[in-house]
What we know:
Layout: E1 12-13, H1 31-38, H2 55-58, H3 60-71, E2 75-79, H4 93-104, E3 109-115, H5 121-124, E4 135-140, H6 144-154, E5 161-166, E6 190-194, H7 206-219, E7 222-227, E8 231-233, E9 243-247, E10 253-258, H8 261-264
Parallel strand pairs: 1-2, 2-3, 3-4, 4-5, 5-6, 6-7
Antiparallel strand pairs: 8-10, 9-10
Amino acid sequence: MGKDSKIEWTHHTFNPWWGCVKVSPACKHCYAEAWSKRVGMELWGAGTDRRFFSDAHWKQPARWNAEAAAARERRRVFCASMADIFENRRDLDAWRSRLWPIIEQTPWLDWLLLTKRPEHIRRLAPWRDAWPRNVWLGTTAENQRWADRRFPELLQHDAAIHFASCEPLLGAIAIARYLGASAQPHSLGWVIAGGESGHKARPMNPAWVVSLRDQCQASGVAFHFKQWGHWGPARARDRAAQTVTFTDRNGQTIELAKVGKSVAGRKLEGRTWDQLPMIAAQ
């Protein structure tokens, strides 16, 4: 985490704090909670403390901005991989207040604010009708129920880019009404999708992610396929692995094997999908 993130769709990650509360099925096997426990910290839950950081940590974005300006190349910053900046806790207000000016003062960085709580954005963010143009506002949706609950909340705000992270993808999502000119008052400009990682991961039906890709292509919206996760399309050499079967939209059987994230890879129908919103190329 930090500079040169291993997350495929960002350059850096910045966490104003660590810790969160689980709010929906996507959170069941939270990688961030598992990571915090691995380093001996119990930070998840409504009554637990959060982990905060030193002044040196908070100076990192200024350095990244200077490097990006010198290279004349914008950099994306995912905020926050180990928390949710719109968690509704008053003890976090001071740390949010420290973050907002940093975003405004780093114009060469595109800040990807990803939340599972878009209903709190209007109350907790300082911007109303004048969002900084380097803010990309996103929310997570793992199935149709959470897409329909969160996307309308997200799209009320006048950010430069609105995006969805459908990871872990746990069900089919009809997303077309949130894409393109018909969406009001704003539309999604970028969709990220992927399966779940870890030994307890739930498998993702390939038809779900193919459908998301096709809906994005039909509307001219950028699509990024992050990973298959712990389960990937079965091949002959995977026959010793645990498998599960799904039925695709054509009624054909698809078999997935539990082979691990690195083996499963991130190719969808023979290619990688690393599309970005048009603004990213400017």
